[in-house]
Design brief:
The complex is a heterodimer.
Chain A: H1 2-10, E1 19-30, E2 33-44, E3 48-52, H2 59-66, E4 74-79, E5 82-83, H3 89-95, E6 96-99, H4 111-116, H5 131-143, H6 159-172, E7 177-181, H7 189-206, E8 209-213, H8 217-223, E9 226-231, E10 234-239, H9 241-244, H10 247-254, E11 258-262, E12 269-273, H11 276-281
Parallel strand pairs in A: 3-8, 3-9, 6-7, 7-8
Antiparallel strand pairs in A: 1-2, 1-4, 4-5, 9-10, 11-12
Helix pairs in contact in A: 5-6, 6-7
Chain B: H1 2-24, H2 28-33, H3 38-60, H4 66-78, H5 85-105, H6 114-137
Helix pairs in contact in B: 1-3, 4-5, 4-6, 5-6
Classes of the chains: A alpha/beta, B mainly alpha.
Chain lengths: 282, 138
């Protein structure tokens, strides 16, 4: 198992970055079906971490546990050093924003109203809207370039615009930690790049810490500083993209025969799958 | 009097819970992510809803279609971001009163049950809503 040994070297933390989220021996299950068992993970402040892995490997489940959307059956998740399951839901929601996979907006709801809902954790039944809320929503909409479409119903927008709206909501929530579950699903390549550019800009200009589940390995390698590769509910490798995304790992984790070359644009590793027919011919 | 007492407790509670209802519209994960204590919110909403329905049914008997149709109409009339609970209450009351007048007077000496009138008024609108939703999906 060359992968495990290289993984432990690569998982050395970036110098000086604080650990924002830590999973310790986490066990996660739906009913009797254990999806993740004994998993350890650290998310460092000010980095973009991408979680990759084949379908059903538990990466979305892990993200849900990190965001306290589901309870751990064993082990614990620490947010800024405190046990997340002992914090109040609202307390968590002011530090950490989660964007679930393919969220749905109620019919007819306008962009501004949806983004305004991101202010929920800062409100109470006796104080439902303040000027702070107003400012946060306007800022979020400007950030994502959706301000001009604020009055449009969300369900009339294109997929890429809709994703920008949801990201705006997470921004309006004002958390410096964002968990995104496949923010690029159902988008064409141009819009995938567009959304990831937005995430990168957020990270670069506001210093937000991002953890996202991504399917596209090349985009994950390009946009994330840290990759976490999962297989069967465990971490197969983690670290810098160049250390994680190797031909051995692709074979081990994805059962994919592929060449890894250098991305001519970003210099990050790029996966070129071989496919059965070409392999047999060669 | 017991009706008034029940309403005095339940209506303010319902109006307070609208705040949570707004975040629940998005589905469980998004609502939790926004800091809603889901189980608590659901239980509270359910109890208040059951309480209100019980008070209404106990005092007026079963009247069909009002609860199915009125919130949909209210939503389209008010166009607010959160579910329009207050507007639904006002519209629902108006619908029942109008239906009651029709039931008592429309057929001379024969008095119809209110529920029949609300059903005649409400059912077509509900069918229209369902048909329209199909269209949107297709």
């Amino acid at each position: 198992m060359t992968i495990t040994s290289s993984a432990s070297e690569a998982s050395a933390p970036p110098a000086g970055a604080p650990v924002r989220l830590r999973a310790e021996a986490v066990r996660l299950a739906y009913g009797d079906r254990v999806v993740v068992d004994g998993l350890d993970l650290e998310v460092f402040g000010g980095t973009i971490t991408a979680v990759i892995g084949p379908n059903g490997c538990g990466k979305s489940t892990l993200l849900r546990a990190l965001g306290r959307l589901m309870k751990t059956r064993g082990g614990q998740v620490l947010l800024d050093g405190k046990r997340i399951d002992r914090m109040s839901t609202r307390q968590v929601a002011t530090v950490l924003g989660v964007l679930p996979q393919a969220p749905v907006a109620p019919e007819g709801l306008s962009v501004a109203d949806l983004v305004a809902r991101g202010r929920h954790p800062h409100q109470a039944w006796y104080r439902q809207w303040s000027s702070d809320d107003e400012t946060a929503v306007a800022e979020a909409l400007h950030w994502t370039g959706m301000f001009d479409l604020a009055d449009r119903p969300v369900d009339e927008l294109s997929g890429g615009q809709r994703q920008r709206v949801w990201i705006s909501m997470a921004l309006a929530q004002g958390t410096d930690l964002l968990l995104l579950d496949e923010p690029t699903t159902f988008l064409d390549l141009a819009h995938q790049v567009d959304v990831l550019d937005l995430v990168e800009r957020l990270h670069a200009e506001t210093g937000r810490t991002v953890v996202m589940v991504l399917h596209d390995l090349n985009l994950a390698a390009r946009y994330a500083q840290r990759l976490v590769a999962m297989k069967d509910g465990a971490i197969a490798a983690q670290g810098a993209p160049a250390d994680v995304l190797t031909e051995e790992l692709l074979a081990e984790v994805f059962e994919l025969e592929a060449r890894v070359v250098t991305d001519p644009v970003a210099g990050t590793p790029m996966v070129v799958p071989i496919g059965r027919r070409r392999r047999d011919a060669g | 009097m017991p009706v008034g007492l029940g309403l005095a407790v339940l209506v303010p509670l319902a109006l307070l819970l609208v705040f949570v209802l707004g975040a629940l519209q998005f589905g469980d994960d998004t609502a939790r992510g926004l800091g809603v204590r889901l189980e608590w919110a659901r239980t509270a909403l359910l109890l208040v809803a059951v309480g209100l329905a019980s008070v209404a049914t106990a005092s007026a008997g079963p009247i069909a279609f009002v609860a199915l149709v009125v919130p949909q109409v209210a939503l389209r009339l008010v166009g607010s971001a959160r579910p329009p609970v207050l507007a639904s209450a006002v519209l629902g009351a108006a619908l029942v009163v109008v239906s009651d007048i029709i039931a008592r007077t429309a057929f001379g000496p024969v008095e119809l049950p209110v529920g029949i009138v609300t059903a005649v008024l409400g059912a077509p609108y509900l069918l229209y809503l369902i048909a329209r939703r199909r269209e949107v999906r297709a």
